[in-house]
Design brief:
It is a single chain. By secondary structure, this protein is α+β, with helices and mostly antiparallel strands. The chain has helices at residues 41-54, 65-83, 90-98, 140-143, 179-187, 189-196, 201-213, and strands spanning 2-6, 18-23, 28-33, 101-102, 104-110, 113-119, 123-128, 131-135, 150-151, 162-167, 173-177, 222-228. The strands form 3 sheets. The chain has a 5-stranded antiparallel beta sheet with strand order 1-12-11-7-8.
């Protein structure tokens, strides 16, 4: 498993609102893209990603809607404990009360195959006989609609997450990508071939900067997790 990331231009890496975590020893990977339009988006994305790896992900293949709601309630509690306990100016409090938002794309690969859960517009890509396969969205037009995101506010509703799998055997190569990368690939499959050829950080950064210059993608945080499964399906 490999994690590649390029933040917005003229922004420090610490300001990147995409959070990706890989846990090859557990067959888990997760990508959460914090919404820039909401406050504390990176912090919320970090809580979701950590909680997926250390809790929800281990039961991904059999977890039900009730367990997801309980898990999300715990994440929201952690966010509230970490933020509302501090002294903030009035305008920051207003932003906090409006809530933070992020996508959630989590993957588990084990002996049963590949399972995935998605909320929002982060995408899972893989290749079948040279053809791009995508989850949960398969068309560029799907990404043009404002996505339903995971909110930190208990009052915000979350539609049932999209689910995939288990897919057995798992694809040899699987990619978790933020929407900034997904949209160009779903627009032009040749760009997908270019993206999947990136197997090291330097090549990925060069591609992202070139796509931005050509205006194929916005100047947004860009994250990709590359998973290469061996024939056993659970080794990396």
């Amino acid at each position: 498993m490999s994690l590649f990331q390029v933040q917005k231009s003229d922004r420090p890496q610490a300001a990147c609102e995409d959070v990706g975590i890989i846990a090859p020893e557990h067959g888990l990977a997760v990508l959460c893209d914090g919404a820039s339009t909401s406050a504390f988006a990176r912090h919320w994305a970090s809580i979701l990603a950590d909680a997926f790896v250390f809790d929800l992900g281990s039961e991904l293949g059999c977890v039900g809607s009730g367990e997801i709601r309980d898990w999300l309630a715990e994440c929201r509690g952690r966010f509230a404990d970490a933020t509302f306990s501090q002294d903030w100016p009035w305008h920051a409090i207003a932003n906090l009360e409006a809530g933070a938002y992020a996508t959630l794309l989590g993957v588990r690969i084990d002996e049963s195959g590949l399972s995935a859960l998605a909320i929002g517009d982060s995408c899972l890509f893989w290749d079948v006989d040279g053809r791009l396969c995508s989850f949960p969205w398969i068309r560029y037009e799907d990404l043009a609609v404002p996505p339903v995101l995971v909110g930190s506010d208990p009052r915000s509703d979350v539609a049932n997450p999209h689910r995939l799998g288990p897919v057995s055997p798992p694809p040899h190569l699987t990619y978790l990508v933020s929407d900034a990368l997904a949209a160009p690939c779903l627009t032009n499959v040749d760009r997908w071939h270019d993206l999947r050829s990136c197997s090291e950080a330097g090549a990925f950064e060069t591609l992202v900067r070139a796509w931005r210059e050509k205006r194929w993608m916005p100047d947004d945080d860009a994250t990709m997790i590359r998973i290469e499964a061996c024939s056993e399906g659970s080794q990396w």
